[in-house]
Amino acid sequence: MLNVPPQAFPAPSSQQRVAAGGRAKVPLKPGRSLMDWIRLTKSGRDLTGLKGRLIEVTEDELAKHNKKEDCWICIRGFVYNVTPYMEYHPGGEDELMKAAGADGTDLFDQVHRWVNYESMLKECLVGRMAVKPIAAPKGMLPEKKVLGASARDLTPSYDWFQTDSLITIVIYTKQKDMNAELVIVDCEDKRLRGEIVDDHSYLVEVDLDHAVQEDVAVNIAEKVGKVEIILKKKDNIHWKMLGQALESHNTFIKRTERGLFYRKCKLVSKTEVTHDTKLLCLMLPRSTHLCVPVGQHIYLKQTIAGTEVVKPYTPVLPFLPLDFKEPPRHDGAHLYLMIKMYSCGLFTQALDHLQIGDYISVSNPEGNFKKSQVQTSEDLFLLAAGTGFTPMVKLLNFALTEVGCLRTVRLIFFNKTEDDILWRNQLEQLALKDERFEVQFILSQPAKDWVGKQGKISSSLLSECVKRSRKDSKVLICICGPTPFTEQGVQYLKDLGYSQEEIHTFTA
Ligand code: FAD
Ligand code: NAD
Known about the structure:
The protein is of the alpha+beta class. Helix content is 18%, strand content 32%. The chain contains twelve helices and 28 strands. The strands form five sheets. It has a seven-stranded antiparallel beta sheet with strand order 19-18-22-16-17-21-20. The longest helix has 13 residues, at 390-402. 34% of the residues are buried. The chain binds flavin-adenine dinucleotide and nicotinamide-adenine-dinucleotide (NAD). The site of flavin-adenine dinucleotide has 27 residues, from strand 19, strand 21 and helix 7.
């Protein structure tokens, strides 16, 4: 049983009250947390007013239900009565009302396309749109979304061939700077999914003609943009065809329009980082090829009390490498997540209860950070608070390993107490080893004997800690932490004269 005190939940600083990406979140009334919503959906109450009947909804009918006390919204062709959900919506009633009596697919996708509304709102399902869905299901390629002629010229294509023992699928990406991070492959139970992702997504998705072995190899010819997916046949028989095309096969659409894909990963270790933060190591299936790029996050999905709940996490490295002479060898088989377990956190409590050997669903990576932002910088400042440190780990490693022009890299790390500082020893060792790197710890609730800096993010702290090494040096300032921290940080930096282009915030 989940131990969730209904009155105190969510706490004022909870993720359920605090928006990522600067969107306003409204304080929820007591008893209106996600867990409370899950409880209500399980209570057997008729949440649609239709006594369990599903109906076909016309556009005219949908439009009639446009008031708070009678509000229907269409999401991906399905119509939901969201009136009972109003008070539980972290974005507030006004945000939901923007789609009242209309198609809310784009609105929902813009805000949180990763939230599984199909599961969250399943008890509110009124029915399907009658004639045609207003928006297409995720991942489909409706006509209006076909790219323009010039973009279509860049549409990748694929081919396949076989030997006695192998099947090779070749994707011609028409992209010169291909790399392993842009290729995601999964193959499970004869279902092959190969995706080339950048700003757009190209997908090969087939139900294979015959069974293949578990391990999948991926070869990338970076300069010519050719990607080979090599599968081992289970039986050495001749295949007449590659397989049956699945619904999104051979489509090329904007990345943000492609639905998130999840695969099950095994928890192989769980180690303590601090009193409340753990490093989880997840093993990807042997048939998955997936690398999470610097600055990107993945989503974890768990079913909690019968409802699918999704939260974002930013993979880190197993430790901070100290020798930057060579880029670290990529270990494509494991994902490391540094996660703070909140004592009344809905998702983290369930995560903390996972046993070694248990499985959890992990999505494809997402995020808007581009390595090129660092590649042209001379001074890099990383402002991290609490677990906001996680995106800084790979970034730090990338900057010190692969960015030649960097003169200074300074991490300004805000925590409550000394016991909360993540990887303190490793950071201090790194600072000793690499003269470009400096770390400064700032505590908001220090013990009496703390001699370092104290306080929260402020204009005076930032004017002291963030300085160009030369008058005109190119600077990048990355910020990550609780939303108020990030928002205040951006404002102070702008007041200090830094431009929007010089600041990157990590958000979902
Ligand atoms: P909730 O149920 O949302 O909150 C329950 C309780 O947890 C609250 O009552 C409160 O006591 C406590 N709590 C939650 N959030 C906070 C907070 N910010 N400050 C103080 N108390 C809080 N988290 C990581 O640990 N590691 C990561 O790598 C990571 N990456 C992220 C990447 C992105 C892009 C984003 C947006 C968030 C990331 N998070 C990360 C946060 C994570 O997604 C969850 O929000 C977090 O794990 C809390 O989930 P929960 O369901 O357990 O807590
Ligand atoms: P925490 O509560 O331990 O606080 C750490 C420090 O953050 C505090 O010492 C303080 O200096 C600062 N801080 C906290 N609340 C503040 C406020 N209201 N105003 C100004 N400064 C404040 O932090 P935590 O529990 O580790 O939370 C980390 C946060 O980082 C979470 O909100 C999480 O969602 C976010 N996060 C985001 C990403 C991302 O990529 N967007 C990645 C990891 C974590």
